[in-house]
Every structure is written in C-alpha cells, then in structure tokens.
Predict the 3D structure of the following.
Amino acid sequence: MRWSLLKAAALALGLLLGGSGACVARTLHVGFPEAIPPWVQAGGRTGIAIELLRSALQAEGLQLHTVQQPYARRLQAYRRGQLDALYDIGQQQQQDEQLNGSISQPLHSFDNIAVALGRRQLEIDHLRDLVRWRVMAWDGAGSSLPAGYDRLLALADGNYLEIGNQGHQLGNLLAGRVDVILCDRLIFEWQRRQLYPAAQDHVPPLRIYPLLPPKEAGILFRDSGLRARVDARIRALRASPQYQAIFTRYGSAVQP
C-alpha cells in the first residue's frame, strides 16, 4: 500500500513538473540586422519587425531572442546552427547563399526607393543609370537588387557600398559622401525625422526615385514544421488590428 502511495505521489509530481515545463516557452534565436530603424532598433532595443515577430511567436507559445549582427556574420551563425531563423531572407538570397531551411509568409514588406539630393538634379530614369553614381545600399542588398544594375561594375569603380546601420544613410547623403542611397521608405522617413525632428521645413529638398520593386520580408526557419505553425500566426496577426497598431506606435503606416 505504501509503495502504491509513493508511486502515485511520484506520478502526480511528474505530471505537475511536466505541466510546468510545458508552460516554459521555447526560445528561438533569430538573426536580425544591426540597425534598420524603425524595423529594428540598434543596441538590442525593439522595432516594428521585432514586435511583429515576437507577437506571432508568442501566439505559438514561443519566446524570441534577437541576435543583431552584420549580414555575413548572421548568415555564418545560421550555417553553424547558432541561430534558429533569419529575418528578411528571400528565395533568391536563400539560393545564392546556399542556406537550408524554409521561408515563412511575409512578416511585412519593404517599399525600397532611391533617394538623392534635389539640387543635384541627377538624371536617373532606370536602375542601370545608378552605375554612374556613388550608391550606398543596405547590408546584403547585393543578393536582392533586381536585374538592371551592374553592381560588380559599380564595385570595381568604387561606386557601391553597403552599410549595416541604415540609420546613417541619410547623413552620408547630406554630407556628400554618396550620391544616392537605396533604402526602404519607412527607414528613409525615420532618418529624416531623427535629423530634423522639429523643423521639417528646413529639410534639404530630396528627390525620390521609385526604381525598386517592393520586397517581402520573410523569415527563414531551419525547422519547416515550426515555419508552418508560425505561418498561421503571421496570417492571423496581419489580419488583426494589432498589426496596424504596432506600426502606429512607431509613427509609421503599413506598406503594401
């Protein structure tokens, strides 16, 4: 009788511990850029993309741990098994970089644009025209720029540069260090607000060239089963009022 009672107590304790363990969310380590505000803030702070992914993961009982690194380093970390997923990876990038895994539903979209100083009056009608000018793009842009821009020629001429912290792009443009920046529209608007927070009338005239197509920001998961589960959560999030609310907190609007 005593043995039966001890066994029952042990079973009850095991169930209790098992139930408690089930409530402890699994942590996913996800690679993000160093800084692309408002999507990802520098220094381990949050951002629109981080909040969106955290919300989708939490709905699936998962916790997000962000790892912010330059493009090449986070790809290497993923290959070594140090990351469970990578933010903003497209099919072409996955193929070019030979990354195993499964890409999720788009978490959001980037509305990429080219920006130059208005006073320069640069004649840029097509993507190929950029090869004449000093261009600064986002870290890893080379794997996602559409055909038409000869990046290798621009690199050979010293006219192409990628930067990890996109918060510095507009400052480089205004200082004359580059002729054109390639960035997402929300990132551009964020930079402009940071440089000119209270005096929008004093912003130097800037010209926007809509040369680039929108780019979907998917998440590359090592585990395809997990990706499928998170896909459902992303779809539900995008259809909910919470999605727009996250953008609104950063003074931004949802992009197509």
